[in-house]
Amino acid sequence: xxxxxxxxxxxxxxxxxxxxxxxxxxxxxxxxxxxxxxxxxxxxxxxxxxxxxxxxxxxxxxxxxxxxxxxxxxxxxxxxxxxxxxxxxxxxxxxxxxxxxxxxxxxxxxxxxxxxxxxxxxxxxxxxxxxxxxxxxxxxxxxxxxxxxxxxxxxxxxxxxxxxxxxxxxxxxxxxxxxxxxxxxxxxxxxxxxxxxxxxxxxxxxxxxxxxxxxxxxxxxxxxxxxxxxxxxxxxxxxxxxxxxxxxxxxxxxxx
Length: 256
Known about the structure:
single chain; alpha/beta; six-stranded parallel beta sheet; three-stranded antiparallel beta sheet; 12 helices; about 40% helix; globular; disordered N terminus
């Protein structure tokens, strides 16, 4: 039977809206959803291990695929994902994604923010200006630009500076699937810092070579976040997924 014929049959028998009638509400439908915003030099698959752990606990999760062309473009992508959730949202951001959730977190659905080895700018700050005031990490010297102004990390530098605590083969896959970011995005200023109004959590990666651990500590202190430190590279979601999932679940459990 053709698809349109099936649709017509459902409409004629009143079955089109049946799912909403016969499926009872569950605890999973009343708890907040989790929306994850990945950072630069990555994509949504970077969070696969944490996503699976959260799903095992019955949490609805969406990993945004950022265009990485601009702050505004990434905020728009995050906002679409937030708007598609049935209720409240715990918004998670890694690295560059911290700047994105800082602005996208203004959405009324967002109940709390989780920063994972991330930037946490204030209103009027960009990642570039924020970086000028914080300790520098060695990996930033290894970011390369192509002729069109898109930035990436060479595979050897992903393994040495971005994800030095994962197996080399895994780091090579991460390098191959990374999302280059438009250089100009780092200069775009955040207009709203939602951490002023929303409770925040911060996972600090103690062995980070992309955002200095002391820089993360300074940002976490400024935003008044609940802090967890883990002995990891810049990608604790890859090397310490259970630790990261635990922090996110804590944020989920705190939402009333």
